[in-house]
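Researcher: Last one for today. Full complex below.
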Amino acid sequence: MKRGVSTEQLNWEQYQKDFAALAEIGQNNTGGVDRLAYTEADQQAHGLLAKMAEEAGFEVKWDGAGNLWITRRGTDDGNEKMPPLILGSHMDSVPDGGKYDGLLGVMTAFHAMRLLDGAPQRRTVTLIVFRCEESSRFNCATIGSKLLAEQLNGEKLKSCVDKDGISAYDAIRELGGNPDNLFQERKYIKNAFGFIEMHIEQGPVLQERNTDIGIVGHIAAPYRLKITVEGTAAHSGACPMGSRNDALTGAAEVILAVENLGRQYSSQRIVATVGKCDVINEAINIVPGHVELFVDIRGIDKEIMSEVVGKLHEELERIAAERKLRIEPAILSQETPVRLDDDMAELLVEQCLPNRLTFLHMVSGAGHDTMYMAGLTRATMFFVPCEKGISHNKKEAVSDEAIQNGLKLMYSVLLRICNLDPDVEKEKEEMERRFMEAM
Amino acid sequence: MKRGVSTEQLNWEQYQKDFAALAEIGQNNTGGVDRLAYTEADQQAHGLLAKMAEEAGFEVKWDGAGNLWITRRGTDDGNEKMPPLILGSHMDSVPDGGKYDGLLGVMTAFHAMRLLDGAPQRRTVTLIVFRCEESSRFNCATIGSKLLAEQLNGEKLKSCVDKDGISAYDAIRELGGNPDNLFQERKYIKNAFGFIEMHIEQGPVLQERNTDIGIVGHIAAPYRLKITVEGTAAHSGACPMGSRNDALTGAAEVILAVENLGRQYSSQRIVATVGKCDVINEAINIVPGHVELFVDIRGIDKEIMSEVVGKLHEELERIAAERKLRIEPAILSQETPVRLDDDMAELLVEQCLPNRLTFLHMVSGAGHDTMYMAGLTRATMFFVPCEKGISHNKKEAVSDEAIQNGLKLMYSVLLRICNLDPDVEKEKEEMERRFMEAM
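Model: Here's the assembly. Have a good evening.
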């Protein structure tokens, strides 16, 4: 496609109408969205989207995890050389969340599939609406994609329990699912051409740099620790400055050390945050004796991560020694960063150009279902900007232009991949290789 | 008294027995003391002490605030030139508090009065057991002494309400008291010779410096403020270090600035503490957008206090500007430091010497009923060391030796003051003045 997709081609009114119909499911009276995984609101959204898909003539099914599969068959369906393309995102929300988050990615993929009407489509394309991407309900994120990728099973899901004591296992069973029966679906993804997810950035980079599209090369993994700072509680009036072992001033130094490491390694894609600071038995007239800090460090390179964590430990020891405190770090979780597929990213770049979309190669600091699809097939992901990077919040906002840009790119890349002939492509590559060798 | 009091003179077994009987009232099953003001346990302690006082032949009454007055008449009772000496402390505790706190001061004063048996006693001595020194129940401290000093009245007490909605006013009325009827008692204190309170230090200085007695020259006043730090909440993975307005890292700088000011001014008797740090909507994966800090600054000089507060404001502005945060300080309370009486302190010093008690002149960082007595009469106060400075906690501990030292000093000073002849003293002073002039 040399000229790109025009806004007129987007069937924008239908997109808006359908998006609005889905977005209002679970909306509370303060304008936030409560569509937690496997709840009635989530079910309702799945039902409505399935109905829209059937109306569009697509095939619809739910897998053992409750993920919704929407398939538009291509003319070469069944041809092993033309395996299907898979798209995906999620529709569940955090409590009092925003309208866009996962839903925008689902709706963009679904609408791009509808836009193929009348266009050539050799390859089959399947949209997977993953279940329970958010950790809010069961303290466990990306359940649907993890089950598909065998990073989770029914047994483990029994211990993921919501505040009412309902396990994720029971929630899936109640819907008629079976989290341990995903063999066929796993095989389908493993044999696919590749996987694409669109999402809002959830960070401020694209807007700050006035860029249309973020092409995600890595998904950073969080290393989380709890740091306990123990000093000696004392009377704020009666204990002189020189006699104190103040756990909170020690914790303040730790907070700044974490920030400083993040800043020092920011060119190496490290972000480091203290998100929680709890003073135990706090009172205005007590010198704090016990503070708990919760730290989240993310990066895309395991070695750099280890270096940062090592330096943090050195800082903790220094602060503990200087202030005569006990500072104990405890690992809460340690995940592995995921590198996404370069060839798939290149196909996105190729379609940005005719559409005159500016783009940046970037890292996703947040986790996504794409992380688990990347273990099964060649996966890529792209971002569109959201207002001030605000997400997981009812203030979440995305401009029409940003949505249209995402839709143009999704439709363009769909059209391109669905009609990408492996033989023709190989021939072209061979010609290019010979050309390079001859130079 | 040239030779001091011997331990044999202290009637130590009786002291221990009676202290234990009072200390166990309100004891909970974890070893802490729950004897909150005006509760049944507090009443029971008042009743038992009154019984002990009657057994000792002392006069007993409760005033309109519920303060217990125990009087031992001297042989010059009624002689205007020999006004009474007043002692005082409290018996109410914080929740799950320690055994000593106020009770040690009450018991030491009471027992010193008993030790006068058989000794000369011209001046009358009265012990006031103040009510509700602790702020725990009604969020209002030193109610009994404030009412006596007209720093509080019945009307204001109606708005001091406990967690069950009972006001301090109603609690006093229920006991048959009338917080607005204290004219006679106020007059009695105003006409007194002076006031002495003994208390545990509640800080580590005496133990650290291996000193027996702390003679309190000033009671520091707290200046309390709430500092609100506002930044922008963001996703801990998706928001790069350079794009953040992290309220918690800003708050960490404020915490260290408060500590730094305390250290810088510590030779000028300033202590500065951040006792509470609350991250609003905290989560491990959110860059904090809103933090509230609660600061307690104490000093003995109003001007130095203003200087410290002024410098803190400068620091807040600097941090806000550097980090692009909104930092708003709000005053919660601002009390006036109290200077105690030098002549009364000198009488304590005079009695430390023959008793071979080492002493330090010091500041009380904690508030005490003495603050309000100082507005009515010449007041002084002394401390005995407590283990590691721990107080308001069931781990509170005081050695027998420390208690005996306090008792020796209290008894010695009682004996001295009760027999101090104003005419003889004036003559001595006049002689000294002439002697100095002649030199």
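The domain at 221-334 of chain A is CATH 3.30.70.360 (Alpha-Beta Plaits). The first strand of chain A starts at residue 59 and ends at 62.
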